[in-house]
Amino acid sequence: MSKPTLPSSASSMPNWQRDAQDHLWMPYCQMKTASSPLPVVATQGMHLILDDGRRLIDGMGSWWTACHGYNHPHIAAAVTQQLSVMPHVMMGGIQHPQAALLATRLAALLPGDLQHVFFCDSGSVAVEVAMKMAVQFYLNRGCGNRHRFVSFRNAYHGDTTGAMSLCDPVTSMHAHFKGFLLEQYPQALPHTEEDFAVFEAFVREHSDSLAGIVIEPLIQGAGGMKFHQLNTLRGLREVCDRHDVLFIADEIATGFGRTGSMFACQAADVVPDIICLGKALTGGTMSFAATAATNRVFEAFYDDNASHALMHGPTFMGNPLACAAANASLDLFESEPRLQQARALESLLQQELQPCAALDSVVEVRARGAVGVVQVKTLDRIPQIIAAGVQRGIWIRPFKDMVYVTPPLNMPHDIARQLCCTIVDVLSDWDADRLPTEASL
Questions:
Q1: What are 186-197's pLDDT values in tens digits?
Q2: Cα 136 from Cα 151, distance rounded (Å)
Q3: Fewest Cβ atoms nearer than 10 Å: which of 104, 113, 408, 422?
Q4: Do 63 and 84 belong together in one domain?
Q5: For residue 336, is pLDDT > 60?
Q6: pLDDT at residue 389 tops 80
Q7: Residue 63, annotated as binding a ligand
Q8: What CATH number has the domain bearing residue 417?
Q9: What is the CATH number of the domain that holds 227?
């Protein structure tokens, strides 16, 4: 195999990045044609710091995770302290204080009786665990044929095999794995009474094979940043109750304040049977996730019969460093006004991004909590848009048909306005075809 041709900007790369060109396989990109990745060497507050000293406002919050900004001293101190005592220990037959404390705190925060917390190591795995719980819930009750799920168009639930099967089978990045993945029941997300009548008829017809309905509450993330209303969640919960189907909430992206409440389901006063958590769980410090279940679900596993146990256990589940970071992050939700800050960001993002709505190429500007979206008719020249943002001091990563931001919940309003105003400027140049033809970061 011949060595790949380096991008034209390779000469400006730091040595460590140039040396890694042949070895570091990057996510979600065609390695042969992708622009050179940004050389980030440090983070601070709301900013990424590049190798050459430039500071960029991070509009992405590192894929929704950095809910308190970067390098928060309280989280750093908690992780440092835990590192000096015990970086990791297996959870097979062993417990430790940080995991015990975190499970107790999450059970107290989660709505209803979501009292039983299973830790894992990434959001996709949390979804896999939820699927496994749901199928085995019915197996343990003697219903061996209930092993399929209703998911929704524009859904995204992760990149592992089971989670991929829940993603939109036509428009998602996993569509070309058809035939390899488990077969589910993808449906249109219902909104109106008529929609729900059709949807419920489908669930009724297939209830004998259904283990669960899986939804990203209020915001469908990587499938297109699609928003839906509280009544949609309430309606889905009612359908599940009427047909004895488990309601599974994937709050990996929406949990921990992103939509303005601690968990998106709480805004609708809905309690799922199983909830998946991740991303901001550790305040953006390290990979960690959890799947929590209600008493009803847990009791189907709590039995003298050993075969009814949940036989799952990621090697690094309950990692003490991650638990320490998560506990410190929860401290900040208790001591600092994160939810109020997220709700205030909704108004700011809507207002400051609104000038984009006047552009010919823009379909809609919308915001919910600390999520702002500019949806366009057709998004092209993405590398040029990213490069223009970098040149103006911001980091954004558009995809599909939108430019979006998911900033830290505590982003100061002056910085958030600078982020939004820069996006307006960049998209104005893009709409008027004034961006350079070459993307140079």
A1: 999 999 999 999
A2: 18
A3: 104
A4: no
A5: yes
A6: yes
A7: yes
A8: 3.90.1150.10
A9: 3.40.640.10
- How far is it, in rounded angstroms, from Cα 377 to Cα 381? 13
Confirm or deny that 124 is annotated as ligand binding: yes
315 is in an annotated binding site: yes
Instruction: Answer yes or no: is pLDDT of 10 > 90.
Output: no
Last residue of a domain, one of 308, 335, 362: 335
- Residue 156 assigned to a binding site: yes
d(CA 99, CA 321): 10
Between the two ends of the chain, the Cα-to-Cα distance in Å is 28
Q: Is 284 a known ligand-binding residue?
A: no
pLDDT at 4 over 80: no
In-domain check, residue 117: yes
Any known ligand binding at 392?
no
Residue 3 lies in a domain: no
Instruction: Give the residue numbers spanning the domain of 134.
Output: 73-335
62 and 174 fall within a common domain:
no
50/81 same-domain check: no
The structure tokens 């990203």 sit at 216
Active site positions, annotated = 28, 156, 250, 279
User: Radius of gyration (Cα) for the chain, nearest Å?
Assistant: 22
Going by C-alpha positions, the residue among 46, 429, 225, 129 that lies closest to residue 116 is 129
pLDDT band at 9 (very low <50, low <70, confident <90, very high): low
Q: Within a domain: residue 312? A: yes
pLDDT greater than 80 at residue 249: yes
| The last residue of a domain, from among 335, 361, 382 | 335
Structure token digits, residue 437: 């033809």
DSSP bridge partners of 42: 49
Are the C-beta atoms of 182 and 162 separated by less than 8 Å? yes
Residues 37-69 pLDDT 10s? 999 999 999 999 999 999 999 999 999 999 999
In this structure, the answer to whether residues 211 and 246 fall within a common structural domain is yes
Q: Does some domain include residue 294?
A: yes
Q: Are residues 344 and 407 in the same domain?
A: yes
DSSP 13-65: S-HHHHHTTTT---SSS-TTTPPPPP-EEEEEBTEEEETTS-EEEESSHHHHT
Q: Is the pTM of this model over 0.90?
A: yes
Same domain, 104 and 240: yes
